[in-house]
Amino acid sequence: MASGTVGSGKVAAEFSAPKLTFEELRSALRQVGEERYHHKHPFHLLMHEGKLTRGQLQAWALNRYYYQSIIPIKDAIILSRALDPKFRRVWRKRIVDHDGDEQRNGGILRWIKLAEATGLDRERVVSGTEVLPASRFIGNEYLNLVRTRPFVECVASSLTELFSKDLIALRMDRMRQHYPWLVSGLDYFEARLTEAPEDAAFAIQYVYEHAATRGEQERAIQALRDKCDILWAQLDALYFAYVEPGWPPPGAFRLEADHG
Q1: Pairwise CA distance, residues 236 & 146, whole Å
Q2: Closest listed residue to residue 253, CA positions, set 118, 113, 162, 141
Q3: I need a labelling partner for 101 at 20 to 30 A (CA). Which of 108, 111, 172, 246 fits?
């Protein structure tokens, strides 16, 4: 009982503390990335060391496509909840970045190109029939987050973009080094090198201006942790199914060696 009281007192103290300055908030958000972003996941470490097989990269591209395909849906949900037309004018750019328009292809088509570079057929990727159940669940959980959480937390959950640029640059370098046959599919990452920092700059400014109390700031930081957990959990599923112990569930994509 006493320990619970102490814990509650600590939380109350944190939430009644003065608001973080912009730089303090930015530092706290970046610390979440340093501790919890999926650049440290064993699956990504194997990828960057050149230790994944073509089949394992196919499994990654196919499952990640499901996540990519829901990003504009996620952004449309956020857009539908926004009351400020200025916010909507900026945020709708994200949907075009992923869906594309009459003038340019978007991130979804670029990701399909990456999947094709691994040797997968477009129809196989887009159908989603071989996606891991965990990948589907995790992606849907992100949609639930932006449907149900306070608006400023939904915006904050996008702030993995604060630190994604470094991972993208590293991934492109290592893919060129270890998987030269993937080079034709790197357009998605090339585009995100400029899109992600632009999006992050707007989102962090919005969170700073609209998280009115220290408590709201702390909940925004927690929303970013939750987003990092979503990304980490997807890689957990891939690692379990295709690395160790290598146990894809019924109906999911199987490595070529598993067939016949």
Answers
A1: 22
A2: 118
A3: 172
